[in-house]
From TrEMBL:
It comes from Lysinibacillus halotolerans. PROSITE patterns: HTH_GNTR (PS50949). Gene3D superfamilies: Aspartate Aminotransferase, domain 1, Type I PLP-dependent aspartate aminotransferase-like (Major domain), Winged helix-like DNA-binding domain superfamily/Winged helix DNA-binding domain. This is PLP-dependent aminotransferase family protein. Transmembrane segments: none annotated.
Length: 455
């Protein structure tokens, strides 16, 4: 029987490889395979169960089995090393467990799906989030928690809202993620940048900005910064909060991946001022399912009404079904088990990336955030431009991100690339960094005038 069930699994793998089975496609029924292979149904069930454990397929009750996704196994794609894609590793996502939660949510909330829900989110989910956030040292009542369509929705709303301090300018780290740049630029808001490096930010410079400019809020990604991968120390976080208190500045702390922090005593900025000075946001997109599009924001009481009205105008309410499924997933303990698994995975990736950087990057090339296991950046030596390196590496089947668009215009740098190892197989990390290092060396040896003409 063992030989037969392995034979069945090999056949499914072959159908995935040659394209006969596509992502989302339905697999043959247990009965059909049983007849085709002339074996018992239990043998087919054993093969399908093994494929489920490998996250290759998933079951839909009373419907059958479906293909989760397919690694493109053609020779070109097999060689591609993708340091651009920054979502969670799809091969370690809890498809099956979350499917159970979705099915249960349909039963529990089927009547609620035919009416509008509270703009700030299902009360039962907000209560569960209040309990869940305590593990991150964020203690806030459910009444101050808003469920949003990913943390970016909360950030986009907050950018446009008037704040109690009556100020209008925004201070943001440079660089920062594309969507925050777009939220600020599209509204033509006045923004002041402060550079973040592998050593963090200049706190004296931050104080000068807070003292001399009418800063409404300071936007910061406090852990696993995008794109540098930097995580602030507790001492730095506490000092930033103290400066905000002195100069009447709010802080929006984007802790979208705080769950992955393996430092046992690492606290968010929110822990140093839970009164409302620090607005805490998090998302489940990077650690759970990107398509879930759910996040949470802990708001000061003075902003709740304004925020609620703005969110209602944007989308009325976040989907009831996905809210219900998330509540069940959190309450059941599945989320905590999943996070423990991800911490191990990303810590290993980070260690491998740092070793590769130290081994293969040329002298004079600096990098940040290798330990995060998610984001990191490489600053290229003058006169090499990121756009040129991106194009050159693509020809060698290595994808990296030009970080130029992650800067406000006055602070723009054109020699920084962003990398994420979140979806890169461990065996390809060293190879990819070796190719990057070789290509930087190759381009640096070119005549300086050659680079001067590259746009």
């Amino acid at each position: 029987m063992d030989t037969k069930y392995q034979e069945i699994m090999n056949e499914i793998h072959a159908q995935i490889a040659d394209g006969r089975l596509q992502p989302g496609g339905k697999l043959p029924s247990i009965r059909a395979l049983s007849e085709a292979f002339k074996c018992s149904k239990n043998t087919i069930i054993k093969a399908y169960n093994e494929l489920e454990k490998q996250h290759k397929i998933y079951a839909v009750p009373k419907s059958g089995y479906y293909l989760v996704g397919s690694r493109h196994l053609d020779s070109e794609a097999e060689e591609m090393i993708d340091f651009v894609s920054a979502g969670p590793d799809k091969w370690h996502m809890p498809y099956r467990n979350y499917q159970h939660c979705m099915n249960q949510a349909i039963e529990l909330y089927k009547e609620d799906m035919f009416q509008y829900a509270e703009p700030l989110g299902l009360s039962i989910l907000r209560s569960q989030l209040s309990k869940q956030l305590q593990a991150l040292q964020v203690f806030a009542p459910a009444q101050r928690i808003c469920v949003d369509s990913g943390s970016q929705q909360a950030l986009d709303i907050l950018v446009a809202l008037p704040f109690p301090n009556g100020k209008e300018e925004i201070c943001i780290e440079q660089p920062t993620h594309f969507s925050m740049i777009e939220s600020i630029s599209s509204r033509r808001l006045n923004a002041v940048g402060i550079e973040i490096t592998k050593e963090g930010i200049d706190l004296k410079q931050l104080e000068k900005i807070f003292k001399e400019r009418p800063i409404k809020f300071f936007y910061t990604v406090s852990r696993f910064h995008n794109p540098t991968g930097y995580s602030y120390t507790n001492k730095e976080k506490k000092k930033i909060v103290e400066l905000a208190q002195i100069y009447d500045v709010f802080i929006i702390e984007d802790d979208y991946m705080g769950d992955l922090d393996t430092r046992k005593k690492a606290d968010p900025m929110f822990a140093y001022d839970p009164s409302g000075r620090v607005i805490y946001t998090k998302s489940f997109s990077k650690v759970l399912l990107p398509g879930l599009r759910l996040g949470a924001a802990v708001l000061p009481e003075s902003l709740i009404e304004l925020f609620s009205k703005a969110k209602f105008a944007a989308d009325v309410h976040s989907p009831v079904l996905t809210q219900g499924a998330l509540e069940i997933y959190l309450q059941s303990g599945m989320y905590n088990a999943h996070i423990q698994n991800l911490r191990t995975i990303y810590k290993k990736k980070g260690e491998m990336l740092k070793r590769a950087f130290l081994t293969y990057l040329p002298e004079g090339v600096t990098f940040t955030g290798a330990e995060s296991g998610f984001y990191s950046s490489i600053q290229l030596p003058y006169p090499l431009k990121a756009s040129h390196l991106v194009n050159s590496l693509k020809k060698k089947n290595v994808l990296v991100q030009d970080a130029t668009g992650m800067y406000l215009p006055p602070y723009k740098k054109e020699n920084v690339i962003r990398l994420s190892v979140s979806q890169v197989e461990n065996r390809k990390i060293e190879e990819g960094i070796r190719i990057i290092g070789e290509e930087i060396n190759h381009l640096v040896r070119k005549n300086t005038s050659y680079f001067g003409g590259i746009n």
